[in-house]
Amino acid sequence: MQNIIESHKDKINYATCMTKYLYDKHIKIFDYAQFAESYKYITREAVLCIAD
pTM of the entire structure? Predict the structure, then answer.
């Protein structure tokens, strides 16, 4: 039972931290998908370079 509680606590803490990070960077939460889209290709290219 404690593992379940810890798991939920981690998720809540992560969500709170992410929200604070986005607000600190002046990124509206609803704009997150647009914000993350630009990193999708950068991350993909970095992974492909490492994989080669």
Answer: 0.38
